[in-house]
């Protein structure tokens, strides 16, 4: 359960960052760095290692608790985006040629990430281009709403796509650790409690 909760937290954290960038043109650096780094950690030893430790997923864990518990903190639009990404990931993962192309692209960009860091504009731009040339070609498309001023800037659009790639990475991880739609319906209480214990 812990691994599934961390993967889902990674997904929600990524999507929250997408919306922050779309609305404000920027996002908090540490949560952003954690999700972008996850794209390059394909062979990590654990789910925690994908994100560099549980502490880097605290924003996502808090979001998970809010989404499950309901009340004023719940964000239905975020839930819809997460469901779209989970559906999209299943379609992408079935396409071996597409997955191979994504893998090659990430390997290529990894050299620049090692040199400049995960959130350097060039790295984010190249990840955004990779998303646009691969995952964006698959339906359903993830619709992002925000401030038209920022959404009209190519650098902002590229950053949003880079973080959407991280969201799909989290969805892949969710499936790899045994996550399924049944968890979202039947194990919500257990997931919320696990998230709370990780936050403590």
From TrEMBL:
The keyword Hydrolase does not apply. HAMAP family: HflD_protein. This is High frequency lysogenization protein HflD homolog. It is a peripheral membrane protein. It comes from the Bacteria. Its main location: cytoplasm. InterPro entries: HflD (IPR007451), HflD-like_sf (IPR035932). PANTHER family: HIGH FREQUENCY LYSOGENIZATION PROTEIN HFLD. It is found in: Cytoplasm; Cell membrane. Belongs to the HflD family. GO terms for cellular component: cytoplasm; plasma membrane. Pfam families: DUF489. The keyword Cytoplasm applies. Keywords: Cell membrane, Cytoplasm, Membrane. SUPFAM superfamilies: YcfC-like.
């Amino acid at each position: 359960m812990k691994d599934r909760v961390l993967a889902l937290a990674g997904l929600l954290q990524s999507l929250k960052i997408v919306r922050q960038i779309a609305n404000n043109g920027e996002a908090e650096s540490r949560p952003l760095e954690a999700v972008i780094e996850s794209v390059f950690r394909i062979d990590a030893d654990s789910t925690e290692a994908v994100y560099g430790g549980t502490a880097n997923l605290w924003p996502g864990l808090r979001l998970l608790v809010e989404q499950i518990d309901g009340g004023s903190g719940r964000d239905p639009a975020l839930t819809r985006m997460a469901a779209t990404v989970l559906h999209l990931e299943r379609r992408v993962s079935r396409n071996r040629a597409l997955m191979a192309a994504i893998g090659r692209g990430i390997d290529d960009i990894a050299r620049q990430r090692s040199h400049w860091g995960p959130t350097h504009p060039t790295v984010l731009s190249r990840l955004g281009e990779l998303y646009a040339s691969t995952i964006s070609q698959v339906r359903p498309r993830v619709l992002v709403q925000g401030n038209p001023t920022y959404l009209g800037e190519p650098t902002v659009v590229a950053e949003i796509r880079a973080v959407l790639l991280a969201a799909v990475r989290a969805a892949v991880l969710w499936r790899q650790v045994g996550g399924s739609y049944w968890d979202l319906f039947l194990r919500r209480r257990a997931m919320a409690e696990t998230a709370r214990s990780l936050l403590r």
